[in-house]
Write a structure and sequence with these properties.
Strand order of the largest sheet: 2-1-3
Catalytic activity: N(2)-formyl-N(1)-(5-phospho-beta-D-ribosyl)glycinamide + L-glutamine + ATP + H2O = 2-formamido-N(1)-(5-O-phospho-beta-D-ribosyl)acetamidine + L-glutamate + ADP + phosphate + H(+)
Number of helices: 2
Pathway: Purine metabolism; IMP biosynthesis via de novo pathway; 5-amino-1-(5-phospho-D-ribosyl)imidazole from N(2)-formyl-N(1)-(5-phospho-D-ribosyl)glycinamide: step 1/2
EC number: 6.3.5.3
Structural class: alpha+beta
Order of helices and strands: EHEHE
Organism: Kocuria varians
CATH architecture: 2-Layer Sandwich
Strand content: 25-35%
Keywords: ATP-binding, Cytoplasm, Ligase, Nucleotide-binding, Purine biosynthesis
Number of domains: 1
CATH class: Alpha Beta
């Protein structure tokens, strides 16, 4: 069945303590090429039928009204998940 991916991230002005903790740990495990980490959330919505523009619009509405907190988060992606081979 087709799936839609919704990615939600904290707004840039919101502190991200989990992201900061991850960023601090990366050099300790030898990964030094990263300057900042922001941690977000991902939702997968399974669709009964075809993913149309209307279904994507409904998924964006769900993301903006239910899956995210618009005070502190932005919906950064709503797209169909490409089928894995």
């Amino acid at each position: 069945m087709p799936r839609i991916i919704v990615d939600v991230m904290p707004k840039p002005e919101i502190l991200d303590p989990q992201g900061k903790a991850i960023a601090n740990e990366l050099p300790r495990i030898g990964l030094t090429g990263f300057t900042e980490v922001r941690q977000g959330r991902r939702f997968e919505l399974t669709v009964a039928g075809e993913v149309t523009d209307e279904v994507l619009a409904q998924a964006r509405e769900a993301a903006e009204k239910l899956l995210s907190n618009p005070v502190i988060e932005d919906v950064v992606n709503v797209s169909e998940l490409a089928e894995e081979n």
